[in-house]
Specification:
CATH superfamily: HIT-like
CATH topology: HIT family, subunit A
CATH class: Alpha Beta
Number of domains: 1
Order of helices and strands: HEEEHEHE
Helix content: 10-25%
Oligomer: single chain
Number of strands: 5
Shape: globular
Number of helices: 3
Strand content: 15-25%
Distance between the termini: 31 Å
Bound molecules: guanosine-5'-monophosphate, zinc ion
Strand order of the largest sheet: 1-2-3-5-4
Radius of gyration: 13 Å
CATH architecture: 2-Layer Sandwich
Largest sheet: 5 strands, antiparallel
Length: 114
């Protein structure tokens, strides 16, 4: 999609360090990390938010979760623990209109937020 920053990063139209990619998914560091490890995992195809997923995206979602598992291991947070978060819509705190999951770790997480 034109003018979507995460589409541009996922398709390498903007140079960015890609930490993981496969046919479906790309992952890269968050610009403003909220934890020692803060990685964004996105579908390569443009999906605006979690509200826009369909049953046809089931494999894509599984790939995102498996990418998170691998990135957690590769970044040394698998044993200590981590958080995988999606913010959906205005009250969910979503600021970029391309579905993304935050992989956060390397510090103790607060609950329900922070
Ligand atoms: P949201 O608030 O939508 O859940 O998360 C959007 C995230 O994208 C924020 O954590 C923000 O720091 C990050 N972000 C926004 N623009 C860019 C960018 O151009 N590059 C990268 N790597 N991250 C970005
Ligand atoms: Zn997009």
């Amino acid at each position: 999609m034109e003018d979507c920053i995460f589409c541009k990063i996922a398709h390498k139209e903007i140079s960015s360090e890609i930490l993981y990619e496969d046919e479906f998914v790309a992952a890269f560091k968050d610009l403003e990390p909220q934890a020692p490890v803060h990685i964004l995992i996105v579908p390569k195809k443009h999906i605006a938010s979690l509200n826009d997923l369909t049953a046809d995206d089931a494999e894509l979602l599984a790939r995102i979760v498996l990418a998170a598992q691998k990135l957690a291991k590769d970044n040394g947070i698998a044993e200590r623990g981590y958080r995988l978060v999606n913010n959906c819509g205005i009250e969910g705190g979503q600021t970029v209109g391309h579905l993304h999951f935050h992989l956060l770790g390397g510090r103790e997480m607060l609950w329900p937020a922070g």
